[in-house]
């Protein structure tokens, strides 16, 4: 479970201070699929980055499985991210010269887990996301939706308990978006991975068990 308590993140740019999220308290249980929704600038990405340990709060606490992590040292946080958390971004962020298989396999090398055959695992994961026939393709030889599924496969290589996705379908057409969202939901069902994703699209609420709405950095009641 991830718990955040009275979390505030203020960005300072010179003399300007932006309160991107303010006093947010929230629990995400293991096995949930949660959507973070709200207008542009409402603080969605900021909140996701806090939940995913990609940033530190200005004030407040973050607990992952009971452990307070906002004051934890950088090394321990990096290790925790690599071991338990997976990320999917809007722009895929695949390495263009590497094949799908190599893109997925690479982050496995950073966590030297003994006894894990990451080559075999990369192949298995690519099959799991429906790309078993595409493992030797480079990103440019794949559709946008397929590239995003490679990025999802990459996020799975270290068997994370949580996946964080910031508008994973923003650059995709409707059909590819469905394939990507169904892949995430399927991973939740089959592997019990907790999925937290940001979306602009009200229709995306059908993919999640729960929706969280932000307005001006605060949690609010649904607006539809
Ligand atoms: N690094 C930063 N420095 C200063 N201000 C920032 C920074 N990142 C975000 N902000 C500001 O914080 C607020 C929340 O930004 P955030 O990116 O979390 O919004 P969002 O809901 O994800 O928006 P979008 O839907 O456009 O992606 C915005 O007003 C934004 O301008
Ligand atoms: Mg955003």
How would you characterize this protein structure?
This protein has helices spanning 44-51, 74-84, 100-110, 118-128, 144-155, 174-191; strands spanning 2-13, 16-28, 33-38, 59-64, 67-68, 85-88, 162-166, 194-199, 210-215, 218-220. The strands form 2 sheets. Strands 6-7-8-3-9-10 form a 6-stranded mixed sheet, sandwiched between helices. Strands 2-1-4-5 form a 4-stranded antiparallel sheet, with helices on one face. Helix 3 (100-110) runs parallel beside helix 5 (144-155) and helix 4 (118-128) crosses helix 5 (144-155). The model has no long low-confidence stretch (mean pLDDT 94). The protein has a single domain (2-220), classed as P-loop containing nucleotide triphosphate hydrolases (Rossmann fold). With 224 residues, the protein is an alpha/beta fold. 32% of the residues lie in helices and 28% in strands. It has 6 helices and 10 strands, in the order βββαββαβαααβαβββ. The protein binds adenosine-5'-triphosphate and magnesium ion (MG). The site of adenosine-5'-triphosphate (ATP) has 12 residues, from strand 1, strand 2 and helix 1.
CA(first)-CA(last) distance:
28 Å
- In terms of DSSP E residues, the strand content is 25-35%
Radius of gyration: 17 Å
- Structural class designation: alpha/beta
Number of domains: 1
Shape-level CATH architecture: 3-Layer(aba) Sandwich
| Total beta-strand segments | 10
CATH fold node name: Rossmann fold
Tell me the strand order in the biggest sheet.
6-7-8-3-9-10
What is the overall shape? globular
Give the name of the CATH superfamily: P-loop containing nucleotide triphosphate hydrolases
Sheet with the most strands?
6 strands, mixed
Q: What molecules are bound to this protein? A: adenosine-5'-triphosphate, magnesium ion
Mean pLDDT: 94
Helical fraction equals 25-40%
CATH class category name: Alpha Beta
Number of helices: 6
């Amino acid at each position: 479970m991830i718990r955040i308590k009275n979390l505030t993140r203020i960005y300072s740019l010179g003399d300007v201070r932006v309160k991107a999220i303010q006093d947010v308290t929230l629990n995400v249980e293991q096995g949930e699929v949660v959507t973070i929704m709200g207008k542009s600038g409402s603080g969605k990405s900021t909140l996701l980055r806090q939940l995913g340990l990609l940033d530190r709060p200005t004030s407040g606490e973050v607990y992952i499985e009971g452990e307070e992590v906002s004051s934890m040292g950088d090394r321990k946080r990096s290790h925790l991210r690599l071991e338990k958390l997976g990320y999917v971004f809007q722009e895929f962020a695949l390495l263009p010269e590497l094949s799908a298989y190599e893109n997925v396999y690479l982050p496995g090398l950073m966590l030297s887990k003994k006894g894990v055959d990451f080559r075999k695992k990369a192949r298995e994961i690519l099959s799991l996301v429906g790309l078993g026939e595409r493992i030797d393709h480079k990103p440019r030889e794949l559709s946008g939706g397929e590239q995003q599924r490679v990025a999802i496969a990459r996020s799975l290589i270290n068997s994370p308990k949580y996946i964080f996705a910031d508008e994973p379908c923003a650059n995709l057409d409707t059909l590819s978006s469905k394939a990507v969202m169904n892949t995430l939901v399927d991973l939740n069902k089959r592997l019990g991975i907790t999925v937290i994703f940001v979306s602009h699209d009200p229709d995306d609420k059908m993919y999640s068990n729960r929706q969280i709405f932000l307005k001006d950095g605060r949690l609010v009641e649904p607006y539809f």
